[in-house]
């Protein structure tokens, strides 16, 4: 596939950060046996990957702003464009030696996600999308799954954990989706959940309490693969609200109605 110069820059940044994370992931697996554990090491790996992404993107587009998980917001002279960067999505997986994590880089233009790259260095899967140009994994075109009924669908979600989110609300939502879906999964990396919806591996996805850097890239992937993404009210305020529902048109609509019934 032919990539635009902008997407090429994003891919190069993600691959470079991914190589750093892959080396550190091997070290984390070894650190599992230590009493201290790998938590401090992972935080260093996370910040190092973010610095790599920041340096690469800043060099290519010096006027663009940033919103990053570790370093927060960095204002740019260009107020229309902002990078959304999660250098290590799936930190808990990484921490425990589970090979399901990603570098996620999104680009928003005037508040709208327009390009995204999600890269899992453990599996060497590179998901890319740019508005109007389609979505791909390792240069293979992606399409969302074609299933129309929740009764045939596998749905992924996020589960709020210790001191985060509304546990009672999630249990109510889980119960109603559980009663209608063919299967439920929780993999622990929002960017990859969205990428896998784009790839047709999951039929739908919902989660609350996310950050813009978790989902900026994935929103573009799903939409460019022919899918639909809204916030939990059916609107387009995902980046600000932190809640979203994704799937093909039928599954997204059914999942939205199901969750609204709670």
Might you state the CATH topology name of the largest domain?
Fructose-1,6-Bisphosphatase, Chain A, domain 1
H/I helix tally: 8
User: How are the strands ordered across the major sheet?
Assistant: 2-1-3-4-5-6-7-8
H/E topology pattern: HHEEEHEEEEEEHEHEHEHEH
Overall number of strands: 13
Structure description:
Keywords: Hydrolase, Magnesium, Metal-binding. Belongs to the inositol monophosphatase superfamily. InterPro entries: IMPase, Inositol_monoP_metal-BS, Inositol_monophosphatase-like, Inositol_monophosphatase_SuhB. Mg(2+) binds at residues 69, 86, 88-89, 214. 40% of the residues lie in helices and 26% in strands. With 262 residues, the protein is α+β, with helices and mostly antiparallel strands. The strands form two sheets. It has an eight-stranded mixed β-sheet, sandwiched between helices. Helix 1 (5-31) packs antiparallel against helix 2 (39-60) and helix 5 runs parallel beside helix 6. It is globular, with a radius of gyration of 18 Å.
């Amino acid at each position: 596939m032919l990539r635009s110069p902008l997407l090429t820059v994003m891919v190069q940044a993600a691959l470079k950060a991914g190589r750093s994370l892959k080396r550190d992931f091997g070290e984390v697996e070894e650190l599992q046996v230590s009493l201290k554990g790998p938590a401090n090491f992972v935080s260093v790996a996370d910040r190092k990957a973010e610095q790599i992404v920041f340096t690469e993107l800043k060099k290519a587009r010096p006027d663009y702003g940033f919103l990053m998980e570790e370093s927060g917001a960095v204002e740019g002279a260009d107020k229309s464009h902002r990078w959304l960067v999660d250098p290590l999505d799936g930190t808990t997986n990484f921490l425990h030696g589970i090979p399901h994590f990603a570098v996620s880089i999104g680009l928003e233009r005037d508040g709208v996600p327009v390009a995204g790259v999600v890269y899992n260095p453990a599996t060497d899967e590179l998901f890319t999308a740019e508005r109007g140009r389609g979505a791909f994994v390792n240069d293979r075109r992606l399409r969302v799954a074609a299933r129309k009924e929740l009764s045939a669908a596998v749905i992924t979600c996020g589960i709020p954990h210790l001191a985060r989110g509304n546990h009672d609300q999630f249990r109510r939502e889980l119960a109603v989706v559980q009663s209608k879906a063919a299967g439920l999964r929780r993999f622990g990396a929002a960017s990859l959940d969205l990428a896998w919806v784009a790839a047709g591996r999951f039929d739908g996805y919902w989660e609350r309490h996310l950050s813009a850097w978790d989902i900026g890239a994935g929103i573009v992937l799903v939409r460019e693969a022919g899918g639909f993404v809204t916030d939990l009210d059916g609107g387009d305020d995902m980046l600000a609200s932190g809640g979203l529902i994704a799937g093909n048109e039928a599954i997204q609509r059914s999942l939205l109605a199901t969750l609204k019934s709670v």
